[in-house]
């Protein structure tokens, strides 16, 4: 119960501050909602997606998980690092898909970075310290008897034995806050360096990120509003040694045209600016736009 209260309080503060880290933490509960059981010992990706709760499936039209995982070349038997897995929206798909020969490694922000959010009270931070254990326990349940192995770490504290073991690293709506606090702790640089070390030669980094319009000022698109420029992400990854492979528009949404004062969390599913009574018209307008415009980028660690 205490955990539920803390999550609910944090969610309210997130909406009020416009500082919501894109973690799906507002979607977690004391007992995480599990997907329906899949009959086959080696379920197809389509079967796994069909077994997810209706609430998760309602977001497929914006998140396109089948196309995303295919684009990022994720396959059964792989070891996949998932940055900021939150309530497990993608984890619940990945764990059964990689199967018993694979693994999913969840990686959270460092505690030093969490402390920079306005909602992070001492009590909330104390609760968050146990995340690696609680997420691993939850994820083991999502994997069931035929899914992948689950483990969890923090950026900046991934053990050396993980070096060169991952087939793919996924940053799904996970980079904006890392970029936002980069100048105050090097958090984005650390996360990208961890990804490079964890990957096997030739391994893939897949990035899905809220995309800022190219004509916005750089300081507007610094991550604090949830948006980053595509050219910034590509340049940052290439500077870290990754090869840019390809971009896809599978998660594009041209209706998302943020104004000067807009934040990404004004849109569904958060509705940070239109939750209150009397803002039904604004909420309807946000629903019409849908979820954010997102870049979908694939990078590769050099093979040699």
Keywords, separated by commas or semicolons:
7 strands, single chain, 16% strand, seven-stranded mixed beta sheet, alpha/beta, Rossmann fold, 304 residues
Topology of this structure?
Elements: H1 2-17, H2 45-50, H3 54-57, H4 60-63, H5 65-71, E1 79-83, H6 91-98, E2 103-108, H7 111-114, H8 122-128, H9 131-143, E3 149-154, E4 166-172, H10 176-180, H11 187-198, E5 199-210, H12 230-239, E6 243-248, H13 280-289, E7 294-300
Parallel strand pairs: 1-2, 1-4, 2-3, 4-5
Antiparallel strand pairs: 5-7, 6-7
Shape: globular
From the structure provided, what is the oligomeric state, counting identical versus distinct chains? single chain
Low-confidence stretches: 1-18, 23-32
Q: The biggest beta sheet, please?
A: 7 strands, mixed
Kindly state the number of beta strands.
7
Question: Class, according to the CATH hierarchy?
Answer: Alpha Beta
Q: End-to-end distance, in Å?
A: 51 Å
Give the strand line-up of the largest sheet: 3-2-1-4-5-7-6
In CATH, the homologous superfamily goes by the name Vaccinia Virus protein VP39
The helical percent reads: 25-40%
Count the domains: 1
> What is the number of helices?
13
The radius of gyration over CA amounts to 18 Å
CATH architecture: 3-Layer(aba) Sandwich
Within the CATH hierarchy, at the fold level, what is the topology? Rossmann fold
Percent strand: 15-25%
Structural class call reads: alpha/beta
N-to-C series of helices and strands: HHHHHEHEHHHEEHHEHEHE
Mean pLDDT: 90
């Amino acid at each position: 119960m205490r955990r539920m209260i803390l999550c609910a309080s944090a969610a309210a503060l997130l909406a009020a501050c416009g500082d919501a880290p894109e973690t799906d933490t507002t979607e977690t509960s004391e007992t995480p909602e599990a997907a329906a059981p899949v009959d086959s010992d080696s379920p197809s990706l389509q079967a796994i997606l069909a077994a997810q709760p209706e609430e998760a499936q309602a977001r497929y039209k914006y998140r396109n998980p089948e196309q995303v995982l295919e684009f990022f070349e994720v396959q059964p038997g792989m070891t996949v690092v998932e940055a900021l897995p939150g309530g497990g929206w993608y984890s619940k798909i990945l764990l059964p898909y990689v199967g018993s020969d694979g693994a999913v490694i969840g990686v959270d922000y460092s505690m030093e970075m969490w402390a920079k959010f306005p909602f992070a009270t001492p009590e909330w931070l104390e609760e968050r310290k146990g995340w690696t254990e609680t997420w691993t326990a939850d994820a083991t349940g999502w994997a069931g008897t035929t899914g992948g192995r689950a483990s969890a770490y923090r950026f900046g504290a991934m053990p050396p034995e993980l070096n060169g073991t991952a087939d793919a690293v996924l940053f799904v709506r996970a980079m904006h806050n890392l970029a936002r606090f980069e100048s105050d702790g090097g958090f984005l640089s650390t996360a990208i360096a961890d990804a490079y070390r964890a990957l096997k030669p030739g391994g893939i980094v897949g990035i899905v990120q809220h995309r800022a319009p190219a004509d916005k000022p750089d300081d507007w698109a610094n991550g604090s509003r949830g948006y980053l420029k595509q050219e910034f992400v590509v340049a940052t990854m290439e500077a870290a040694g990754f090869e840019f492979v390809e971009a896809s528009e599978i998660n594009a949404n041209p209706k998302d045209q943020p104004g000067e004062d807009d934040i990404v969390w004004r849109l569904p599913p958060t509705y940070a600016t239109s939750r209150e009574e009397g803002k039904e018209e604004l909420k309807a307008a946000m629903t019409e736009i849908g979820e954010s415009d997102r870049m979908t980028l694939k990078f590769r660690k050099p093979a040699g």
